[in-house]
Specification:
- There is one protein chain.
- The protein folds into two domains: about 100 residues, NAD(P)-binding Rossmann-like Domain (Rossmann fold, 3-Layer(aba) Sandwich), CATH 3.40.50.720; about 55 residues.
- The chain is α/β, with parallel strands linked by helices.
- The protein contains eight helices and seven strands, in the order E-H-E-H-E-E-H-E-E-E-H-H-H-H-H.
- The protein has a five-stranded parallel β-sheet with strand order 3-2-1-4-5, sandwiched between helices. A two-stranded antiparallel sheet has the order 6-7.
- The radius of gyration is 22 Å and the shape is elongated.
Length: about 210
């Protein structure tokens, strides 16, 4: 088994290539759109969902076969062709142009893999088994997602603003003071406050901690 290094990469507005036009390619595209990628898709045939994305200008679609040097201008390439010969051709092309490649269901050709993830506002939780046990990863995703507090994304927003105040204000430079404030923040049931009084009241409560 390969050992994959977990890393977060900014792909917002960056060119990313998806090769394939079926349901798996569509899932890859939706995954990438969630993180703001500028997506090019190459496939002679595509399902209606991908076609609609192209018609709306959400992605760029080239209805043709993959050809040599198509990987030239990309750092990340996703192949979902269900054709071993095409996958191998893309693999060699990506090596030639130093592009990182993910091939659906073919770990041997992957230079990176996609983890399962939970995204709530600015918080992203990634779960991966390195491709060894995807069914268990799916179970963990459901378990973790169900255990997250209600209004989780709003609490994350409060936490981000709370940290911003800590960093900006020189009164809270020492670790002891910061840790005391952080513990105070974490002990509050923000879900209950937001549900009962709304987000603005919760924000006021957060500022009262200072």
């Amino acid at each position: 088994m390969k050992k994959y290094f977990p890393i977060y990469v900014d792909i917002s507005e960056k060119p990313v290539l998806v090769v394939g036009g079926g349901k798996i390619a569509y899932r890859k595209i939706m995954y990438l759109l969630d993180f703001g990628a500028d997506i090019d898709c190459i496939s002679p045939e595509v399902i209606s969902e991908i076609n609609r994305l192209a018609e709306k200008g959400i992605i760029h679609l080239s209805k043709r076969k993959y050809k040599k040097n198509d990987a030239m201008n990309y750092k990340f390439v996703f192949a979902a062709t269900n054709d071993p010969i095409v996958d191998e051709f893309i693999y060699k092309d990506c090596i030639a142009h130093s592009a990182l490649l993910n091939v659906a269901d073919v770990p041997a050709l992957c230079s990176f893999i996609l983890s399962s993830y939970i995204k709530k506002g600015d918080i992203t939780i990634n779960i991966s088994s390195g491709g060894a046990a995807p069914f268990f990863v799916k179970h963990l995703k459901e378990t973790i997602s169900n255990s997250l507090p209600d209004k989780f994304e709003f609490i994350a927003e409060l936490a981000a603003e709370f940290r911003s105040i800590l960093v900006r204000d020189e009164r809270y430079n020492d670790d002891e003071t910061r840790n005391e404030l952080i513990n105070s923040f974490l002990q509050i049931d923000w879900t209950e406050i937001i549900n009962m009084y709304g987000y603005n009241q919760a924000k006021d409560k957060m500022k009262e901690l200072f």
